[in-house]
Design goal:
It is built from 11 helices and 10 strands. By secondary structure, the chain is of the alpha/beta class. Helix 2 crosses helix 3 (44-58). Residues 16-73 form the HTH lysR-type domain.
Amino acid sequence: MLTPMCQENSPFPRLPPLNALRVFEAAARHGSFVRAAGELHVTHGAVSRQIRLLEDQLGMPLFERRNRAVFLTRQGTELFTVCADVMAQLTQAIDRLRTPPTQAPLVLSCEPTIAMRWLIPRLPDFRTRFPTQQLHLLTAGGPVDFARDRVDVALRRNDFPWHPGWHTERVAPELMGPVCHPGATADWQASGRPTKILHTRTRPTAWSHWLASCGHILPAGQPLAGEYFEHFYLCLQAAAAGLGTAVGSAYMVEDDVQGGRLAAPFGFTHDGSEYVLLSPTPFTGDTRRLLFLDWLRYEMGQTRERLGL
């Protein structure tokens, strides 16, 4: 018969109850005891009691309570950083234990435009190279919640802050340049400027950054006139349809440039950002992550080589 281990014999005698830490992590992540209670399927009072128990055991406040709202203290922020990383690692470990390693799919979160215009057309090659490795693709941009969305890795540009505990691997530099319908290049090269500029709201500074890379700095507060599209892929589609000139990523337009649907009259330059692969757990020791990372680096390198970059 098993008997409870006393605190003195525990290998972690100073740890508070793990359930209290789990409740704290949920409350800190949501910034709300009410939303944490909803996620954990308990009452608001139960969350409040667990937080108070944790604060009493640690001998310090973890939240400031102001006007029915809660805010992390300095100590609370430090503890949350560790708890979030540990909870993510526990979730990933349990998922791996529940699924045989040879059958476990790699769940990838990828920005929509790079997924549609570059990644998906190359997935048949990934499946040919690694026929036993399943890849599940989710499209999303910006910050990612690995635990909530059950994501293993996320392909992103490094244009936003992420959790300091995440593991990061550089994949490729971002390369940008003007692209337009092939029939529009002669007029542009003759006049030295495009007849119509296309912008995307998801990368509103793409044109100014490209001009700056060529030595043309716009005066402060002076936007470039042109037509705006809500998403990057719509802007690139409009350029291919002859509606104007957009600044596009070399990876996103490679197939259209190679197929003659788009032209890149001035080539592509590094805009200062990078594509990175993010993970809540280390890449070392996980064959799925390492295989996909190596394949991504190789394929993006092939894109640059085919475009002469």
